[in-house]
């Protein structure tokens, strides 16, 4: 039987993102896969420190991701880097909300600004989807005020070595710029007393979060929230 491309695409949209099953009950995952992912969620909190840059801030992640330990989890993270997966991000954000109510991860719960890691392609990507979902679930303000500087190379983060990721040596070498025009209404970060939260999908070496911290002017109440934590591959003196 001949099937046209549009029908094949329609079938693909209705199959599980991970296993391909058509028994999709909610989100873009089947009940088996979403249950397995939820079981993997466990709040992981670390303190990021860099003596060279004299910076320190907390990093909170929903899942500890060790690629060689779980093919299912690795497949999940890789598939989440595709186009919009709003339903799944919303479910994960609700899990974070429950964890926050129990563990009080963010102390100033009612006052926080979420700043996503920007997309180099300038199209909504995984970090921005995760930040949007968190902002909606937590009733936080979403402020996409960071952008990559023009001289930033197109090489993807996962293709870089540790030294390439940490090629910046001071605030003037940071590859982020702050652009208030990207936000619907101006922010007054200097007088903001709440938590300023940088959101990315995965943290590995911490270089991206460190650059965001510097670009935002070393805010007093700064923290990072990521979906996955892969800091076991980072240099031991960078994150502890």
Topology:
Blueprint: H1 5-13, E1 24-26, E2 29-30, H2 31-40, E3 44-50, E4 55-64, H3 71-79, H4 86-103, E5 112-116, H5 126-138, E6 141-142, E7 146-148, H6 162-165, E8 176-178, E9 195-203, H7 207-215, E10 222-229
Parallel strand pairs: 4-10, 5-6, 5-9, 9-10
Antiparallel strand pairs: 1-2, 3-4, 7-8
- DSSP helix fraction: 25-40%
For the sheet with most strands, the description reads: 6 strands, mixed
Task: Indicate the structural class.
Answer: alpha/beta
Output the number of helix runs. Answer: 7
The SSE string, one letter per element, is HEEHEEHHEHEEHEEHE
Spatial separation of the terminal alpha carbons: 58 Å
Describe what is shown at a glance.
With 240 residues, the protein is of the alpha/beta class.
Can you walk through the features of this model?
The chain is an alpha/beta fold. It is built from 7 helices and 10 strands. It has helices at 5-13, 31-40, 71-79, 86-103, 126-138, 162-165, 207-215, and strands spanning 24-26, 29-30, 44-50, 55-64, 112-116, 141-142, 146-148, 176-178, 195-203, 222-229. The strands form 3 sheets. A 6-stranded mixed sheet has the order 3-4-10-9-5-6, sandwiched between helices. A two-stranded antiparallel ribbon has the order 1-2. Helix 4 packs across helix 5. The longest helix is centred in the middle third of the chain and has 18 residues, at 86-103.
List the defining traits of the structure above.
10 strands; six-stranded mixed β-sheet; globular; alpha/beta; 240 residues
């Amino acid at each position: 039987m001949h099937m046209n491309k549009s029908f094949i695409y329609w079938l693909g949209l209705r199959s599980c993102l991970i296993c391909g099953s058509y028994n999709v009950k909610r989100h873009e995952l089947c009940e088996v896969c979403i249950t397995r992912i939820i079981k993997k969620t466990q709040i992981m909190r670390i303190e990021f420190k860099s003596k060279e840059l004299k910076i320190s801030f907390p990093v909170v992640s929903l899942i500890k991701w060790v690629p060689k330990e779980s093919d299912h989890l690795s497949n999940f993270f890789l598939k989440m880097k595709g186009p919009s997966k709003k339903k799944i991000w919303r479910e994960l954000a609700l899990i974070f909300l429950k964890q926050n109510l129990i563990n009080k991860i963010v102390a100033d719960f009612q006052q926080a600004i979420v700043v996503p890691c920007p997309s180099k392609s300038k199209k909504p990507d995984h970090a921005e989807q995760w930040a949007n979902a968190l902002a909606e679930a937590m009733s936080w303000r979403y402020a996409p005020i960071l952008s990559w500087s023009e001289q930033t190379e197109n090489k993807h983060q996962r293709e870089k070595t540790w030294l390439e990721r940490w090629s910046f040596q001071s605030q003037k070498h940071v590859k982020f710029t702050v652009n208030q025009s990207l936000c619907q209404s101006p922010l007054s970060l200097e007088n903001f007393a709440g938590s300023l939260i940088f959101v990315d999908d995965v943290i590995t070496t911490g270089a991206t979060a460190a650059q965001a911290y510097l670009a935002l002017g070393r805010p007093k109440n700064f923290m990072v929230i990521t979906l996955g934590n892969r800091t076991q591959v980072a240099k031991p003196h960078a994150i502890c």
